[in-house]
Amino acid sequence: MTLQKHERILVVAAIGFLAYTLALSFLGPVLSSIVADKTYGNTGTVVAVGVGVYWDYNCTNPVNSFDWGFIEPGANKSLYCYVKNTGNQKVVLSMSTSNWDPQNATQFLTLSWDLEGANLDIGECVRATFTLTVSASSQGITSFRFDVTIFGRTS
Asked: What's the rounded Cα separation, in Å, for the pair 155 and 139?
């Protein structure tokens, strides 16, 4: 029995698909373990003191935590949110981190933002860019967490 041209194409495609599926099932765990060793995951709490921190410009969706996802050594990643002066006086913004886990993560990870020392009028809402930088020489960290505190201090 001779196969028609379109039947041969289907058979070849089916064999190719099976080979691809088998290759992924064997290589998938190996590749994912390689990637997992080179990336770091994080979710950390965000606490606001004297200001509100929101995901949207209308300041209706509060930020409770940052989820940095996965980031490789030598890379940086940015998250954007909005900071609003919810008080009744002009404030100066500052940010700090705490509760790093593991503790040595501070040797390899740095969080910065673009609003350090900025003045915020009553009711003013501004976009903030937070950037997490991972040192290319980071070693031994497969996951991490830390807390971020954003302060609005009266001047």
From this structure: 41
- First vs last Cα of the chain: how many Å apart? 90
Cβ contact 52:62 at 8 Å: yes
CA–CA separation, 56 and 62 (whole Å): 8
The secondary structure of 106-126 as a DSSP string is GGTEEEEETTTT-EE-TT-EE
Which tops the pLDDT comparison, 148 or 138?
Answer: 148
pTM above 0.90, yes or no: no
Residue 7: the pLDDT is 61
Work out the number of other CB atoms within 10 angstroms of the CB of residue 102: 13
How far is 92 from 68, CA to CA, in rounded Å? 26
**For 44, which DSSP code?**
E
Query: Distance (Å, rounded) from C-alpha 93 to C-alpha 125?
Result: 12
pLDDT in tens, 37-85: 333 445 677 777 889 999 999 999 999 888 888 888 999 999 999 999 9
Rounded distance between C-alpha atoms, residue 100 and residue 147, angstroms? 7
Number of alpha helices (DSSP H) and beta strands (DSSP E) in the chain:
1, 9
